[in-house]
Amino acid sequence: MSRATLYRQRARQAALPLEGKKRPSLPRSLSLQEIETVLDILHCERFVDRAPYEVYATLLDEGVYHCSISTIYRILEENKEVRERRNQLAHPAYHKPELLAAGPNQLWS
């Protein structure tokens, strides 16, 4: 048995008891109130159709900092909101015209 295989097996066995436990929250992570503040900003009429980078840059120009761009994306991902934020035009389904003639000389195409 190679040394790498032995170390890999030992590392797997040591990690097994930790799988069911939740990771502790980091001391610098955002509180629930701060996360709600960021979501409220992203949902306001002013920023509802802008990319997180644009929101971040605009707020930074105004001297307001809540969190980093990656944290904004992480918050949006947790709330299932990572998508195109602009209003998209929904094109109706195209139906091929059906031409029916009941008799001669009724239909010309």
Folded structure, characterized:
The structure is a single chain. The chain is mainly alpha-helical. The chain has a domain at 27-81. It is 41% helix and 0% strand. It has four helices and no strands. It has helices at 3-15, 32-43, 52-61, 69-78. It starts with a helix and ends in a 31-residue tail after the last helix. The model has no long low-confidence stretch (mean pLDDT 87).
Oligomeric status: single chain
Number of helix segments?
A: 4
Give me the secondary-structure category: mainly alpha
Which percent range fits the helix content?
Answer: 40-55%
- Provide mean pLDDT, rounded: 87
Strand content: under 5%
Distance between the termini: 79 Å
Secondary-structure element string:
HHHH
| Number of E strands | 0
Radius of gyration: 28 Å
Largest sheet, in brief, is: none
Shape assignment: flat
- Point out poorly predicted stretches: none
Keywords:
mainly alpha; 109 residues; 41% helix
What is the element layout, followed by pairings?
Layout (H helix, E strand, L loop, with lengths): L2 H13 L16 H12 L8 H10 L7 H10 L31
